[in-house]
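forwarding from the other thread:

> can someone predict this with iron/sulfur cluster?

sure thing
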Amino acid sequence: MNGHPAAAARFTANEARARWHDESLWLVREKRDRAAHALPEWEALRACAAEIKAHTLDHLGHYLAQFEAAATSRGARVHWARDADEHNQIVHGLLAERGMTRLVKSKSMLTEECGLNPFLTARGVAVIDTDLGERIVQLRHEPPSHIVFPAIHLKRGEIGELFHRELGSAEGLDDPTALTAVARAHLREHFLAAQAGLTGVNFAIAQTGGIVVCTNEGNADLGTALPPLHIACMGIEKLIPRVEHLPVFVRLLARSATGQAITAYTSHFHGPRPGGELHLVIVDNGRSRLLADRAHRRVLSCIRCGACMNTCPVYRRSGGYSYAATIPGPIGSILEPARDPARHATLPFACSLCGSCSEVCPVQIDLHHQLLAFRGELVRAGHAGRARRALLTVGGALLRRPTAIAVVAAFARSVARWLPARWLARAGGGWSRERELPELPPASFRSEWSRRRAR
Ligand code: SF4
């Protein structure tokens, strides 16, 4: 066993943590449901967002050119990066040209994807992640385990220990307000000392050349208000055509991500602030290849809300690190194998095909259909592994022959009938407790049915 199954087995071995992780994310899913149900126009918003994104992707070249022209006319400098290495070189070049070695960074999954932090650190730049969750995982030398809640896999006590060890706070802290105060004091020093601020981009508006960054902590604003240099990094898919399209996405994003009506800060940057510089780094890194793939290009509509992770029974029970990928969960299980099929071949199989991810996706990506399609592609390309290929070949052959299915089902039934009842009760009982269903009876199915019929 390797890939996702092996890593998931390691996570689920700690039953208490797996259960708590599952329950924490389910609470977020429930909050999202309440927020969505409070808006009668929710489904219309989703449909509208999906159409805007589909239209933008169909005319991406046009909108990218329009965005570059508008941003440049507002005084921003636009840079184009073909891949992760070019992206990192551009960011480092901007800092090195100005002799800057202290950078504060707000959340950007793109820079995680490009491996920017280690690239800059190796060249003498001190990079401080200023999103609280990101700073926590950075202090632990770990990547984020979730795209919205980077430290969701950690308990408060573990964060208290980390802060005591790394930041010198009092021992045994686990009160969230006290922990936040420690982080705030620590980050404030870095905001004040920073020479440059780097942000991600949630939305880039082609019509105005402006960018929009959504945070709950205001760290993007703090990180860009003081230093003279603001670098914003975005994938080519972040574009929307016009400013009137923005409210559609802003209303969907926070509700889908955390169940809030809106993020605490929705910051608009239209050109550099007086006396400062704004540099926009627009990155491809495999996205145009995905754009050319008509079967999968819809995944480029993703607005990185994380809702598909919060609802996914596999993600909730196996944790973000089991995906060994920058973007975990259902959307990551498509994006990552699209980028590197050999390395991430097990991910599309980390899915129950329940369809819950597609149900919640605010831009209506048909995630479970995409995952299913990817399985076939990986098998055909020889990336699925011998055992899985054999299993799928046998399964496929069976599904084409209804009589064979009936024979196998009859055989399985007769075996199950004679299995010791306590085996079934033990196996099924564990599962029942997980799902809060009634326990299986401690008798065989056959005797239980006979008993019920006799009632
Ligand atoms: S695929 Fe949809 S649900 Fe998942 S992160 Fe992207 S926008 Fe959110």
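The CA atoms of residues 337 and 344 lie 5 Å apart. thats all i got for now
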